[in-house]
Amino acid sequence: MKEKTVSEAVAYRRSTRVYDPEKPIDSELVKECIKHASLAPTSSNLQLWEFYHITSETQKKEIAAACFNQPAAKTAQQMVIPVVRMDLWPKRVAANIEFIKSGFAKNKVTDPKTQERALYYYKKMIPHLYRGGTPIRGFLMKLYMTFRGLRKITYREVSASDLRVVGHKSIALASQNFMMSMAAKGYDTCAMEGFDSKKLKQILKLPAAAEISMVISCGIRKPDGIYGERFRIPFEEVYFER
């Protein structure tokens, strides 16, 4: 099957509520789409995400139950669950530092001051920001940045809740990459937010710090699996050129 162009995939993608049980999808192609998800933009290149690819019939039934057995979950051929892992920031910072260091040898960067400047962001700024992930420290950082902002241009999204938003924004970008890639292959998806997060974390054996962003069901649509025509607010009401 010829893959769709970007414009074709965007137009084709719809939230599919009922999948055809007679039309299975290729797990390897879904995995390829998850790889595309992992190429999405991500704040500070920290990649604080994980993707759980559900193909087991047993787990699909358990997860569908945790999603209130809504049709999009109950009829899914497979599922992909994007998970935010803010707790992995030290590990991801270390990976970025090692990547930058490997570039020093490759590009013959030997000046210590140049190396120090290149590593400053990940060695100093990111740890300072992400240690604010606890509520008390985050509150103090927010207070400090508010006063600092009275004098100069300041980055203000530093509280624990702000950092959570950053993590979920990044994984939302990755999820859209995934769904567009699936659409390009003629596969359908539905991003679901209706689920019992505690039950779902137990099924996936996730640590307490992990946060499930959404559950994406996958398959091939039935004709009645799309609930009506696409509705969008008139573009003129949401587009502003300045």
Would you write up a description of this structure?
The chain is of the alpha+beta class and 242 residues long. It has one domain (1-225): NADH Oxidase (3-Layer(aba) Sandwich), CATH 3.40.109.10. The protein has nine helices and five strands. It has helices spanning 6-12, 27-37, 57-66, 71-74, 89-106, 112-130, 135-148, 160-184, 197-204, and strands at residues 49-54, 78-84, 188-192, 211-212, 215-219. Strands 1, 2, 3, 4 and 5 form a five-stranded antiparallel beta sheet that branches. Helix 2 crosses helix 8 (160-184). The longest helix is centred in the C-terminal third of the chain and has 25 residues, at 160-184. It starts with 5 loop residues before the first helix and ends in a 23-residue tail after the last strand. The model has no long low-confidence stretch (mean pLDDT 94).
Brief summary:
Helices cover 48% and strands 10% of the residues. With 242 residues, the chain is of the alpha+beta class.
What keywords describe this structure?
NADH Oxidase; globular; 9 helices; alpha+beta; 48% helix; 242 residues
CATH topology: NADH Oxidase
Low-confidence stretches: none
The CATH top-level class label? Alpha Beta
Tell me what the CATH architecture is.
Answer: 3-Layer(aba) Sandwich
What's the mean pLDDT score?
Answer: 94
Radius of gyration: 21 Å
Helix fraction, binned, reads 40-55%
Beta strand count: 5
If helices are DSSP runs of H or I spanning 4 or more residues, what is the number of helices? 9
Shape designation:
globular
For the record, what is the CATH homologous superfamily label?
NADH Oxidase
Biggest sheet details: 5 strands, antiparallel
Number of domains: 1
What is the straight-line distance between the termini? 42 Å
- The secondary-structure class comes to alpha+beta
- What sequence of helices (H) and strands (E) makes up the elements? HHEHHEHHHHEHEE
The percent range for strand residues is: 5-15%
